[in-house]
Structure formats: C-alpha cells, structure tokens
C-alpha cells in the first residue's frame, strides 16, 4: 500500500492569504526549534502567527502536514543551489565544486537549527518519512543528472547512487550539529566520503 504524501489542503493565491500562509510556516519553524516536534501544536502555531485556528486548518490538516511543507521549502532552497551548481559541471574542478556546495549546505545546518529540527520531525511517522523521501527523491533526480558526466558507465545504478548521496549528506549533516559532535570534522569526513565515492565511480567508468 502506497502512503499518500502529506501536503496542504490548498495553497493561497491572493497576496493577503500568502502572507498568512507564510506567517504560519515561519511560526511553526520557530516553535519546532524551540520546543521540539512532540510539543508542537497547531493551536500554538496559530497563536504565534496571529491567525485564527480555523484559518490554519483551512490549509493544514495537522502538524504533520506543516512539518512536511517546511521540509519541502528547505528542499526547494537546496534545489536552487543545485541548479547553480549544475551549471559548472562537468568540469576538471568538480571536486572543488562539490566541496563548495557541501560547505554551503553545512553552513545552513550549522547556522539554522531549524534545518535539523525539520529533518528530525519528518522522520517521526511513516507518512512524514514517505513525504520527506519524495522530497529527497526530487533532489536525487537532480543529483543524478549532475553526476551523469562523472559516471557514464553507471546509468543503471545512477538513480540509486544519487539517493544514497543525498540521504548520506542529510544524515551526516544532522549528525554533525548534535551536541558533543565536531561539526567541521564531520563535514570534512562527509566531503571525503562523497568525493571518494564519485572518484571511484569515475575511475571505474574510465576502465
């Protein structure tokens, strides 16, 4: 049985509604970071966003849909960065470009605690995990196109490779910002891991 993705009941079209929609999501992000997913409530989100609870329910069935929408927004932001990144590949300097992109992602996770809060929240139930997986797949599809010139002989495996790359990056970035963990050292190991993986595929494909 396929789990249906958790998405808003509707999306705003008028400017005033868009502002309320954005305010609710911004408030949810703040609260999620402050109190954690278990303590997050739709009532508190609506109160902080200064909208009636009925307005919130017009768009979101529950808090699970809200965190999935936050995850989608984070994914869109990364997609935009990947689009700019893709314009520079293939290149003899692609390892440098990969490092630059991972540095950008690492800075987002280091400087914005809500990134990890959202990522952890969408791991909480089968439905939210399935929705987050679809968001990751969007990134993986983009990564698959990105690494195509580096893996010409791995067309059949490229989709799985890309999913592994994306999930590994997100998992280790989440790990890197946990209390007691060394963020710079973890990011360095992530770079080595992903660059080594792609270099291995590149060299294998050249044989």
Automatic annotation (TrEMBL):
Residues covered by the HTH tetR-type domain: 18-78
GO MF, any single term: transcription cis-regulatory region binding
InterPro entries the UniProt entry points to: Homeodomain-like_sf, HTH-type_TetR-like_transc_reg, HTH_TetR, TetR_C_22
PROSITE patterns: HTH_TETR_2
DNA-binding region(s), residue ranges: 41-60
Keywords annotated in UniProt: DNA-binding, Transcription, Transcription regulation
A Pfam family assignment: TetR_N
UniProt-listed PANTHER family: HTH-TYPE TRANSCRIPTIONAL REGULATOR BETI, HTH-TYPE TRANSCRIPTIONAL REGULATOR RUTR
Protein name from the UniProt record: TetR/AcrR family transcriptional regulator
